[in-house]
Amino acid sequence: MEDKSVCYYCGTIYDKELEKCPLCGSTVRSSQDEAARPQPRRRLTEQERKERRRKTRGGKFSKKSSKVSARPIMIAALIFLILAVLALAWFIFDMLGWIPGFEDNVERETPAISTQDTSCSELSLSVPEIRFSAEGESAKLEVRVNLYCSETVYVNSMNEAVASVPRDNVQTQETETYKSAVFTVNAVGEGETEIRVTCGGKEAVCKVICEFVAPVDPSADSTSDPTGPDQTDPDPSEPDQTDEPAPSETVGEDYLPEINQEGDVTFTARGEKLTLRVTNLPQGEKATWRSEDESIVKINSYGELTAIGGGKTKVYVTVAGKTAEILVRCNFGDFIDQGAHLESGRSDVSVVVGESFKLYLYDSDGDRIEDVTYEISDSSVCKVEDGLVTATGYGTAEVTIVYYDMEFTCIVRVR
Predict the structure, then answer these.
(1) Three-state secondary structure call for residue 356
(2) Domain harbouring 123, CATH code
(3) pLDDT means per 10 residues in the chain (415 residues)?
(4) Does pTM surpass 0.70?
(5) Kindly report the CA angle at 272 between 268 and 276, in degrees rounded to 5?
(6) Angle at 273 between CA 267 and CA 279, to 5 degrees
(7) Which domain range does residue 79 map to?
(8) Is residue 187, in this structure, part of any structural domain at all?
(9) Does 110 reside within a domain?
């Protein structure tokens, strides 16, 4: 066999001396060449192709790839779930008020009107003076304040026997720059007076002059129905010195004159004026005014008070034999009542919730001082209304009464 060759293609054995296979004609190759010759490609059967496709789609490699691609989706879903839980918890806590909500941190533009000063910074009158030539005449007085003023405007006649200002039928209007109110001033009797207008800390005055003589009914008794100054009285500003009128048959036994002033009257400067009047004066009756000490305060027959000197005194009014009084203090000059004091046992008070007690300041004569202010250290413990202290919660608080430069403290213990 050493001199023989085997045909690579057909397998015929022939002599090596022959260059070609005598059967198929292929060239003789060495065993090494044959080993290096690529093997012919075998066709796959249909079954083998199906098996290969099955392994490629569902094999080990494809399963591993599927697991790796699902992991980011699971992480994203977990993060979304955590954020949803946090958002829900924030919403619930915000509704309960445990934490500040998102809207509390948002900067909003504050409306321009909220930045405006609501106090009275401007106060003016349409006219500085009004003149009347006959009884019953009327004139309009316009009062103007700044646009954003929220304080109350007070209009008062210093002598309603000369001129009056009704509170009804007041016309108000508002423009782009100011607010205004139109009052009606009526002529009542001969003389001069002032219409004083106040709003907050501002004050304006309109002078009223009535240059006429009020008609007098000759059939009426001048001492029972005065419509103006007595023609025989040379100085109507002086207090009426006539005797007090006898009791009237038209006035009941329980009648008592009521004065248009709640509490005491306090003046803080010499020359200050205030007009008093009887609000329940029966028709046909006369009010007679008298000052106990004219060196402190004077009052004319029309109820106009004038501060004269420092001190305190009483003013009396008599109607049909019935008398009422009011205390007047002139706290200026060297006088401020230094005898002011609390009622005994009111420096330290123990009460229960809902209980009330009176806390007043009295002067050296035992009269109540009403022109005072109250201050409370803790409003959750108690409150004060016109000197009546009411316990509202448990604890201890101090109620201080301030009277000029003096202070009086009461400790309130609520149990």
Answers:
(1) strand
(2) 2.60.40.1080
(3) 71 76 69 57 78 70 54 89 90 78 54 66 89 86 89 86 82 86 88 88 89 52 41 44 51 85 82 89 88 92 89 91 90 72 86 92 81 92 93 94 86 93
(4) no
(5) 110
(6) 100
(7) 49-104
(8) yes
(9) no
